């Protein structure tokens, strides 16, 4: 009978030890998974930022506009009605009073001109706002294109 009780006691202790080890292992795996998940998220965010920077268009203001107190901020390149991306919406800030028709010239990756659009921008010193340049429907502003505002 004592052997039976001793065997039962050993089995119970072994069971509880295994259960404890399994729980600790599970906790370790969960922590490891959290670390891997955080690292993967950071990696993919970095890749996304790199892709965004690589695909961005370059917006360049002419020296004349810069001397007249014009600065640019965010921009969006979108479609008017066709599948071509031919609409530039540009955030412009004014350091001085300004009222003039300006032209935006779009160039592809090979530095060939692909379109022009005019719009009047006007603002008082300290003003800022969004201005839209509508290019011809055949113009398709692609990745890494350059747009010069004159």
Provide a brief overview of the structure.
The protein has 150 residues and is of the alpha+beta class.
List the helices and strands and how they pair.
Blueprint: H1 2-55, E1 58-61, H2 63-67, E2 70-78, E3 87-94, E4 98-107, E5 113-123, E6 128-134, E7 146-149
Parallel strand pairs: 1-7
Antiparallel strand pairs: 2-3, 3-6, 4-5, 4-7
Kindly describe this structure:
The chain has a four-stranded mixed beta sheet with strand order 1-7-4-5. Helices cover 39% and strands 35% of the residues. Strand 4 and strand 5 form a beta hairpin. It has two domains: 1-55; 58-149, Immunoglobulin-like, CATH 2.60.40. The protein is of the alpha+beta class and 150 residues long. It is built from two helices and seven strands. It has helices at residues 2-55, 63-67, and strands at 58-61, 70-78, 87-94, 98-107, 113-123, 128-134, 146-149.
